[in-house]
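Tutorial, part two.
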Amino acid sequence: MREVLGPLLGLLCFLLTGTTVKCQSKVKPVTTHLSAKWSHTPLLLETAEYMREESIATFWEFVEAVSQKDFTLFTKGSDKAVYNEILRTAGHFLSPSQVSILKLSLSMRVYSPKIEMFCQIALDRNLPTGEDCIAVFDVNGELACNIEAMKKLVEVGSGTKPVSYDVDHHYPGGENAKIGVTLYAELGTKEFRAHHLALKELAGLGKIDYVLRPYIKESTKKKVRLSGYGVELAIKSTEYKAQDDTKVQDDGGRQEEDDEQEVEIEGFLFSKLESLHPEKMNELEQLRNHLVDSRHEMAPMKVWQLQHLSMQAAQRIMTTPKEEQLSVFVHTAQNFPMLARSLVRTKVDDKMKREILKNQNQLSSQMDVNPSDAALFINGMYFDMDFTDIYTLLDHIRTEDRVMGGLYKLGVPGDSLSTLLNIDLSESKQDYGIDIRDTAIVWMNDIENDRAYSKWSSSVGELLRPTYPGMLRSIRKNFHNLVIVAEPEKATTADLIRLVEGFLTHNAPVRIGVVMSVNSDQTLRGYDDAGVAMLCAFNYVAQNLEGREDANYKALQFLVDVYSNVQGDITVDDVTSHFKSKYRSVDLEDVFGEDSDYDVGRMLAQEFVEKAGITSLPQALMNGVPLPEKHLNADEFEEVVLMDVMRTTQTLQRAVYKGQLEDKHDVVDWLMSLPNVMPRLNERILSTKNSKFIDLTGSSGETLSSVSVESFATQNAPEMTATLSNSCRYITTKNDQTLRPLTVWIVGDFDTYEGRAILLEGVKYLRESNSIRICAIHNTDLSSESPKLFSRAVEVAQTTLAPAVARQFLAKVLEKDNAKKIIAGTKKWKDFEIAGLDIEAFTSRMDSFKDAVFKAHSVFCKKVLALSPGQRTVVANGRHLGTFKTTEKFVMEDFGLLEKYVHSTFGEKLTEVLVGEDPPANGDISDLTMKVAGVLQTKPQSKGRTTVNLRSDQYSVVKIPARNPNMPVFDIVAICDPVSSAAQKIGPILMVLQEIVNAEIRVVLNAREKHSEMPLRRFYRYVLEPEPQFTEAGDMTAGPYARFTGLPESSILTLNYHAPENWLVEVVKSVYDLDNIKLDLVETGVHSEFELEHLLLEGHCFEQSSGNPPRGLQFTLGNRQQPVLVDTIVMANLGYFQLKANPGAWLLKLRQGRSADIYTIASHEGTDTPVGSDDVEIIISSFRSHVVKVRVGKQPGKQHLELLAEENEESGGLWNSITSTFSSSGGKEDETEKVNIFSVASGHLYERFLRIMMVSVRRHTKAPVKFWFLKNFLSPNFKDILPLLAKEYGFEYELVQYKWPRWLHQQTEKQRIIWGYKILFLDVLFPLDVKKIIFVDADQVVRADVKELNNEELDGAPYGFVPFCESRKEIEGFRFWKQGYWRNHLAGRKYHISALFVVDLKKFRRIAAGDRLRGQYQGLSQDPNSLSNLDQDLPNNMIHQVRIKSLPQDWLWCESWCDDDSKKSAKIIDLCNNPMTKEAKLVAAQRIIPEWIEYDNEIKAVLKGFKENKSIAEEQPSQSPHIEL
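Running the prediction step on this input gives:
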């Protein structure tokens, strides 16, 4: 029988997981799904955002294509028809592989948060809502609903441009316009087209900056259904029974998950299979009977049966037909607990086992992948699947596909494609420096020659002498040269000058130089400008002491003296008055007047600033390398200089050790000869932050001469670029066809001086290098009536002359004076005739030249480069360096820097690969190099890739060949144990990747040789679909969901979500106890609905001066209408904080009160603050994690204040300055009178206990009580009844929520996660105005006034716990703390129970108790055998570091540990588990606590009365689920 069923079972497993056979419930399915909080967003808008990530040009081309179509295609058709139309339109701009990735993106709703973000921005803008306002214009802050009104506002031109963000869509060419018009409209609607055309026309004329923001006026009730997460059903231990006996009634409102009625047997739909395979009717009937007969519940397995389960699972997978192996792999992993027993009978092939063990040895030694470890490699890039979500994978796959597809389109063969893909662009990244051997620098000292350093050794060998860590070596060499470039009159300069003066005073081994950048206007004198005055005074002092080696140092001290007398920027009076006081006999006119001899060095300084590429001052250069601008402040400057000295010392030591640096060398000359030192620096070249990359992979057989301007304008961006590239005749220094790795397109209007200047510098540089070629692109202002004299000359020269002749000719005519004479008519073209130039033919061609080329170039500049007419830029191998400012220079040295940068980053590696290849069809290897470089530059910089080498892959590797080996092929390798949690997640992802990308997939079965326990105790589903799904009627289905069938009915299962780290997910609908699912107690199955409540904003905050986290600092997050929506507290651990957000534009602020009084935000990274804004703005527009870094500094005069000070330390105290923003009552009771109680519950039984605990608390106290509950685990039912109970029994409550930080070791079992929340986050869960909190376990009944407990003195300890009872003698053998580790560790102290404790939150935060507990937890929790009772063991383990006050024993009585006599005085009774009897909690409660039943019945009656009253009040019967409480 087994021989017959084996292959067929494999086939059925494949059909089960495919799309042909739909899965149905065996009888009782468990289904669940996750939705976003926001409404459905149209797929058309999401597709547009996908296009935006391809390029700006592609986005606007897609918008144009959609707007030109009949709008009814997107508004009237079925969902399926609209989807197909979207794909058809997108297919014009995307390759087939990109369309597949688009489908997955739409299925995952990747861009839905971005659409919602735009909608929230529109909501904050308070747009008009009338029926005539389907689309809205925002014209410099004024709103308009129709085109005529918009045009009138544009004509008026008042107001300021609306704020825009990097995520906004600017129409190309209008960014510099003074009038900004933001269009809020929905693409694909009737209104959009007219509005878009009107704005497009105005933007084309340069009148407006057109910004498009998607806007959905009419939102639907339908929510966005999400995917990309996992769901587990963990098998729960039944050692202690914790189930509620309350009956629940299903609401009957089943979702589409449960609509189909046919019953499955072990997951198979036999009626469907019989219709698909009628020829196998008899075999299917045999299989049906076999499965029905063999169906049973999960029985315990013996240890010998568990030992080889991994190997046996691998064997079953490998003996399945090859095309079904991946499906069986997924099925086995996801349903392992039910399949385990059947695996025991599988015989393991020795060949497979030997191969697995050999591969494990190799993987362990070469890649540090150990047996049972998991790893995923995509084209050699490693992904840790414990921390990598599908959104990260998709982003990487999309980038890889773009690069691979681009290289393929360029004709790069497969082997070379892999080699090029492996080029590491990150290795060559280095800090570039400027040559500091410049006369503009005034040196304050010279370590090699000044007498102050004469006693130091002058041997470079001293560098190798051992010294204490951090100690600066005193060697008489100019190893460390620090140059300060600053405006001397600015207050920001003062701190740096004071600090470097301190270096000089203390003889630090640093050579100090200063460049004073002052106003270069020669008409200004010392009396007119403070900077010039400071320069004149400095020069006077230095020249007055000429001949002394400290002359410049004395001049620097004069500046320091001026700074010491002034707060803020220096004025002329400040300088002259101090000068007069020092040099009374000197005539100020001689120093600061018009004929001053001391006004020197201004132009030299200006030239140096330009040459160094310095755009903001002050700046500091260490050995020519700019120091990070964010560290140039009084608090951090010394530290960053010291770190740089240490780093440079290591470089020098290596050089001395290798003999590269010797005593005979001039150290400064040696430093300046290093490869990272350039003659000029330019941030545009060295940083890709402002760069864009144009698509060079388009194909076009046309040139500009063979296509009309009109036809050219209709081409998409890649085609347009290809046509232009085909038309370029490059200017080079020689006429040969040698490989030139750098292709530069110089873009500008060459009839302007600025345009000619940049082209001239490029042409001049060609004399220096034969590795560069240049093409001039005309961005001419076509509206001008000028004769375009030079534009025509440049175009005729580069298209008709030999390259070398064109270079010589243009170098002459573009020279400034010559150009002026040509324009003035005093010189003719023939005056510049050179050898090889037929001047008559040249002038004839100029005379007959047509302007069509300029029109085509202008279209390209606008559409592809997004330039306005006349703007300049440089495009280097497809990298667009950004739009140049009007006064910005780009000179010969910049071209040299560009060449050196390209060569060092990838040029050399790229050339090595391409030179060995066959030349391209057109014979131009330089063209291929340019295009390949253009593609590779879009690849994010990354670490090296790994090649997975196995000893053998014949018996233990699942191999899935690529669908189309002739196309670019992804290499995907997954390494995992087939019965591991990693396999449960990786398997479904591989199934989807197999569908969407052309991939060769290998699954290396890294099976563990032996197990001593069950390897997997959970069922698992990963929710992911390759594309959106539609019904037969064409409607979009509700969305993806997780469905479990064939589950054991007698086992207790716990449902958990495994969502990306930054998702805060909570259950919003479920009548069943998801902690205790027992299918034999339900009739039709269990359904639940979850919601993505928040996307987490995470951050790290540090003090600017000390670098330490500001413990207790509070941040708030809100929008402009509501500045404070949520708040948080900064931890000491990594300065970590988290804030709950959702898609939109947010403002991050310090909380009003003590945080804002003492601190100010000094700098921030990872934010989206628009240029010129003082606010810290953050855009949440993605499902991906968003992490910000914030540095804060203390306010002036507040340096000695502390956030967490004692109340009486400072007036008013911390706690009086802050009020809670979270309250269910809005009451104003004195916080010192209120009792705050914290509790955690999960599951219906513990929520029932919790209700009773709350009521028992209220019965025994008159003090106001506020309950704090952890929201993460509460059921929808409990959250619904909380307001009722609060009203009935007179208490306040608040739900707090905190996401377990990703950097803190994660727990996997739900009970241990709850234990962790009890103790690990006490310092950040509650607002700072909560002084004291009492934790009370849910399963307790209170018999005393908790006010007494609240008032218990803790004697300086941060918290107090009740010790474990020791009076019940029969339980003595279970008192583990009296023996072994605990006996030694406690050293006579008591072991305390965590069921009840009081926390002094002020003391707790002040001594950083929370941070200490988390630190100790991080260390101990790595050992799975440690912290078996996490919430209890951790504080007891830390008793020596974080003191515990022992509370009186009568505060907590527990029958398991306390004798019966002590019960009479018990103030609180706890239902702790009894290790001897294992009695169920519910039974124990009713037996031990007589009043428990009374409380329970009373609460049920209250809730029943509420339901009855609610039913009477409603006109129709409620459709909500009925729950008996």
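The radius of gyration is 37 Å. In part three we will examine how such features are distributed along the chain.
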